[in-house]
Specification:
- The chain has about 210 residues and is mainly α.
- About 50% of the residues lie in helices and about 10% in strands.
- β2 and β3 form a beta hairpin.
- It is globular, with a radius of gyration of 22 Å.
């Protein structure tokens, strides 16, 4: 009887360890699935863009992976872009197309397309709500963005998927839209947001 009693705690501990290991593997799988979805969206977006260019008789131009120039010049340029992004933009247009992609325009810039996941992320980052003391939309934590995206897409969204999406969204803004990539703002203590100016509240005099 004593031997049986001694085995129970060991079996429980082993079972607890197995449950934790399965939970870890489950989180890892969900993260990989999110990354696979982002990759699939990116491929679909590239195929659609190339197809449209070929239909118009144009050859697709593949942009460089990074901002051109030596590392020091790129560093200076990135700092300038960050400073320019502080003032934010006035308008952000996101229109969903019949094929699932979204046409996006930032202020009076050129129109470009985003896959569903990145368009949903951009829309979420630009959502108003909450307090902001600089005239731009309020900051949101990565967890808040993940929750809002999950509600919008009806799928579980991991923190890793949000951070990877932010990285990709910055690249798409710069390479496809010619927009400042640092309009996607990140702050270690405040969170993330798209630097969009808040709409001015209407007054009684405006009818």
């Amino acid at each position: 009887m004593t031997a049986v009693k001694n085995q129970c705690p060991n079996q429980s501990q082993a079972l607890l360890w197995k449950i934790r290991e399965l939970a870890r593997r489950h989180r890892c799988l969900l993260s990989r699935l999110s990354n696979a979805e982002l990759l699939a969206d990116s491929i679909a977006l590239d195929l659609s863009r190339i197809e449209r260019l070929l239909e118009m008789g144009e050859l697709p131009h593949l942009p460089p992976a990074e901002i051109d120039g030596p590392p020091r010049e790129r560093g200076n340029r990135n700092r300038e872009l960050r400073v320019l992004a502080h003032s934010g933009v006035t308008t952000l247009e996101i229109r969903v197309r019949a094929d699932g992609l979204s046409d996006v325009r930032v202020d009076a810039g050129k129109e470009f397309s985003l896959p569903p996941m990145l368009a949903d992320l951009l829309s979420t980052l630009a959502m108003e709500g909450g307090y902001s003391n600089d005239g731009l939309v309020a900051w949101k934590t990565v967890d808040e963005v993940a929750i809002l995206l999950a509600k919008r897409t009806n799928r579980r969204i991991s923190r890793h998927a949000v951070t990877q999406g932010i990285y990709r969204l910055r690249r798409e803004l710069f390479h496809r839209g010619g927009a400042n990539p640092y309009l996607i703002q990140t702050n270690r203590s405040r969170g993330v947001r798209f630097a969009l100016k808040q709409k001015q509240p209407r007054t009684n005099d405006e009818g």
